[in-house]
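Researcher: I'm preparing a figure for a lab meeting and need a structural model of a single chain. I don't have an experimental structure, so a prediction will have to do for now. The sequence is pasted below. Please return the structure as tokens so I can convert it later.
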Amino acid sequence: QVQLVESGGGLVQPGGSLRLSCAVARSVFNIYNMGWYRQAPGKQRELVARITNSGSTNYADSVTGRFTISSDNAKNTVYLQMNSLKPEDTAVYYCNAEVQDFSLMVQNYWGQGTQVTVSS
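Model: Understood. Here is the structure written out token by token.
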């Protein structure tokens, strides 16, 4: 079992910034991609941003130009820099990773979620 450890959520005013981090908690054979999803109350979970192990990224239209996803492959960690935050960005943010362990099995894992609240 692979654990994803998230940090960085909190309360911020509109227009402010937050940085989320997510680390794969143990050594694995390979990480194909990592990403962030979010789920607001009463809504479905949606993709926010994703990055592959080659550095390719994609973003939801609603965050393009405001959020930046990056990764440190040596640390098996992904970051989400969120700028110009809006109240509609309020949600629980979940880290996701497609991981190949040393048995060469590929599985999809989720973090426990971190709350981001944008409010004045």
